[in-house]
């Protein structure tokens, strides 16, 4: 690679910077440019119908500033804007933003397009970067300033034939490649020309990172350098319009907000020219994750994604922050175990009535808060561990496997995953659980059991009908509780089977008149030393425990065959 063809872009010498010590504590003014910057970047631009659906989505999300496009340069954008006016689709508290170059015929047609709209941001721009001045326009600084000032004068003159409210926005396009002193000079010239044309309405200076040319801290320095030197700063809105050429659009935005920016222009999910605009949703969700109100109604990311994909024809990457199908998942066993323990600790706090601030490893926010389900949080493949399998069994199906059993069942699932390849779905896990533990009837099958809890002589009496290797037995025995009594009853008929119960646990699977219980029995085969778990399910906890014994017996027999 001939890296010597390239050189470092200049940085700002700005030792008095203050932004590194600041924090984001409130949401900026959001402006969606999906219908302009995002739309012009599509292989197939949106139709009027798709634009209308997208516009209504933006309104529902709470955007108060929406850029429509270049109505003077595109007939479809002109027609769309007029359709919004005719159908009274623009709420009074929403500002429509229109973009125009600093040319008289374009500004005049833009005024024609916005007639009937109550609140408009009239956005003019011209390119100011060193490279564009030298290569594209062949102009010096003063000539570039003259273009901006003349465009501002044209908008001022157009105010007399417009009966709505106009807010001026000016962008020194390619700001990221413009000398900061020149950016300040041209903004000041525009400010002086505009004057107090619309009292009480601040002018917007938009400082676009048109092409990311350096690390995000450099963009922050540029923004603070200019922002801190503007005259009458309290009457100015400093806006940013970051792109993502270096993959740091979100970082550049967040640092620019620290540096004094009041407003962000961006798109949903980062659509836009080249590598895209800044993803407003990611920036907003980042704020949300820090306890800052993003001032947008973005609690249903799945709905947003559906409309976005339908209207733009683009698809959301599975790893896209917050919106991707895999971002709230964990395949790693250690990650799954940490998520499992974190959610359990949080649930325990909630049950104790304590403040349950969200603190779960690997999950910066609760997926449910943005319309995602818990079920896909843990996804099982051959790299998963016991924590993940236990999480699925608990969160999806309600089975709280004993800790030692988690390893046993995880080994079964891991073998299945390696055999079949790929991800194991929750329903496959449950099907395997039933096959391995609940549905076993060979060589032992429980047919009938009656338990007498009169506790004569502190013992429990049982009558058990069961089959072993196809032969049916009826046995009665007394023991120290139902499990001990059934064990003795079985050994009376099948003395070669010698086992002992190591552990027992149970819990309710559901509530109400049809509630069931799950019982887990850990048993050891005294001949081989094999240890397994069995599981029993019943509406009666005693029967559940006895069924768990038969489950474990069958699993011991299966393991004994493998042992031999």
């Amino acid at each position: 690679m001939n890296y010597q063809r390239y050189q470092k872009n200049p940085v700002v010498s700005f030792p008095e910077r203050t932004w590194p010590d600041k924090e984001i504590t409130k949401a900026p003014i959001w402006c969606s440019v999906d219908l302009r910057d995002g739309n012009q970047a599509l292989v197939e631009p949106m139709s009027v119908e798709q634009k209308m659906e997208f516009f209504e989505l933006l309104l529902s999300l709470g955007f108060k500033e929406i850029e429509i496009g270049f109505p003077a340069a595109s007939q479809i954008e002109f027609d769309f804007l007029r359709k919004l006016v005719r159908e009274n689709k623009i709420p009074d508290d929403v500002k429509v933003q229109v973009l125009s170059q600093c040319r008289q015929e374009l500004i005049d047609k833009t005024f024609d397009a916005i007639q009937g709209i109550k609140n408009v941001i009239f956005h003019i721009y011209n390119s100011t970067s060193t490279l564009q001045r030298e290569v594209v326009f062949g102009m010096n600084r003063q000539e570039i300033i003259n273009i901006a000032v003349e465009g501002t004068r044209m908008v001022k003159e157009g105010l007399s034939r417009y009966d709505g409210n106009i807010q001026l926005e000016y962008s020194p396009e390619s700001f990221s490649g413009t000398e900061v002193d020149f950016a300040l000079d041209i903004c000041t010239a525009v400010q002086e020309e505009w004057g107090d044309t619309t009292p009480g309405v601040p002018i917007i200076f938009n400082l676009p990172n048109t092409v990311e040319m350096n690390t995000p801290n450099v963009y922050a320095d540029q923004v603070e350098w200019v922002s801190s030197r503007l005259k009458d700063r309290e009457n100015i809105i400093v806006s940013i319009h970051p792109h993502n050429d270096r993959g740091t659009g979100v970082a550049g935005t967040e640092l620019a907000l620290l540096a004094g920016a009041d407003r962000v222009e961006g798109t949903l999910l980062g659509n836009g020219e080249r590598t895209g605009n800044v993803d407003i949703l990611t920036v907003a969700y980042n704020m949300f994750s820090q306890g800052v109100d993003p001032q947008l109604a973005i609690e249903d990311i799945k709905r947003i994604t559906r409309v976005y994909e339908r209207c733009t024809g683009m698809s959301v990457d599975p790893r896209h922050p917050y919106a991707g199908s895999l971002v709230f998942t964990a395949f790693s066993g250690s990650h799954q175990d940490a998520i499992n323990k974190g959610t359990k600790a949080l649930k325990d706090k909630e049950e104790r009535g304590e403040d349950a601030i969200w603190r779960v490893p690997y999950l910066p926010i609760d997926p449910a808060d943005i319309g995602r389900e818990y079920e896909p949080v843990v996804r099982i493949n051959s790299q998963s561990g016991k924590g993940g399998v236990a999480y699925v069994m608990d969160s999806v199906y309600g089975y709280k496997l004993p800790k030692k059993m988690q390893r046993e069942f995880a080994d079964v699932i891991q073998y299945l995953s390696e055999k079949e390849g790929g991800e194991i779905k929750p329903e496959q896990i449950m099907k395997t659980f039933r096959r391995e533990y609940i549905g076993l009837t060979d060589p032992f099958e429980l047919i009938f059991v009656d338990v007498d809890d009169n506790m004569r002589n502190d013992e429990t009496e049982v009558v058990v009908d069961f089959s072993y290797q196809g032969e049916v037995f009826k046995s009665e025995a007394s023991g120290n509780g139902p499990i001990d009594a059934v064990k003795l009853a079985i050994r009376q008929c099948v003395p070669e089977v010698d086992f002992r119960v190591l552990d027992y646990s149970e819990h309710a699977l559901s509530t109400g008149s049809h509630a069931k219980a799950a019982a887990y029995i850990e048993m050891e085969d005294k001949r081989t030393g094999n240890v397994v778990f069995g599981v029993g399910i019943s509406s009666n906890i005693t029967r559940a425990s006895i069924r768990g014994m038969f489950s474990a017996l069958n699993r011991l027999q299966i393991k004994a065959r493998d042992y031999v």
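The longest strand covers residues 499-508. The chain has a mean pLDDT of 94.
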